[in-house]
Amino acid sequence: MLKIKNLIMLFxxxxxxxxxxxxxxxxxxxEIRDHYNEVLMQRWVQVFREILDEESFxxxxxxxxxxxxxxxxSFPFHDKALELLPFPKRFPFSxxxxxxxxxxxxxxxxxxKFSEDLNLSQAEVDDMIRKSTNLLLTRSFSGCLSSLFRKxxxxxxxxxxxxxxxxxxxEATVYLEEFVSNITGAPKESHMGSRGQGQSxxxxxxxxxxxxxxxxxxxxxxxxxxxxxxxxxxxxxPKGHASSFITDLIAFLQSIFLSFTNLPAEVAQxxxxxxxxxxxxxxxxxxxxxxxxxxxxxxxQQLNLDTIQCEQFAASEPVTGLEEGALLQYFADLRQLxxxxxxxxxxxxxxxxxxxxxxxxxVNPNTAIILLE
Length: 373
Fold this sequence. Notes:
By secondary structure, the chain is mainly alpha-helical. The chain has helices at 2-17, 23-54, 65-74, 80-84, 96-115, 122-149, 156-171, 173-184, 204-226, 244-258, 265-288, 297-315, 332-343, 346-352, 365-372, and strands at 61-62, 89-90. A two-stranded antiparallel ribbon has the order 1-2. The longest helix is centred in the N-terminal third of the chain and has 32 residues, at 23-54. One of its GO terms (cellular component) is membrane.
């Protein structure tokens, strides 16, 4: 397409020297330029796919100053705290970030090639490059990410890393804007990322996909622990400590939420709420299962010990920014049901039933009847 452009430009110059009007040919060149940009997009989709296919989504680790400088030269990242740390050092993002950043710069150069000699103003070239780059990131790269999330082989920690990576790419759009301004000579305007709003909306669709994936993969992982449930429903005395599958599950959650520290706060909070909700519903379902025909008081007390363990985790503020007691709300139904049965407090239940400040407001009568039978 660049060869075609050059031929038309030569033809233009020749015709103009003979005094002919060449406006329509310039209009044609502008149409070809738009098509050229579309072709570039398709080519870079392939580039992004190859990068994503090779990526392990692990934070970059460097063991020497030369390696550190190499990363910082390929991606604008400045962190005083990290600079002061001894080697080996670990960046918060994976190799995906500098690779994609460099490819976006290559794309900008390729866009510019077609605009040379087209008699366009600096502002027009600048606007065209910004729009194309914005589209490359919001549509092409985001589309590649969304298709990647559908791969069942993608692990939970990898999804978390991708969300962290997109955050760093979004923040770097301000440097891309400076880069475009330096090339075109046009004054810098913010078209690409709304950096003032914190996390901009550039990868919103991909991030929404990733958030859903985090919740789904987390539930799937929790189910692996919950499947190990082996309650003896006729237990005479509780063990005096939480069941092993619950302590393992809580240990897993504590370690996984440590890896959430670099995530946007709302993503970590949503995942934590989803996890607590899933555990509470699962414990309730164990008791109410059609397979369970008989339950002893000892079994209920054991379930109570397990619930207490979960409540302690919920109260320990596993992720920051949640209102106090927000996670405990997910265990309220289960807690009130267990309290009612363990204290055998039916007079209070019947007396307060239907009232707003009832002690057992969350206990559904149908659930209580099934358990009582």
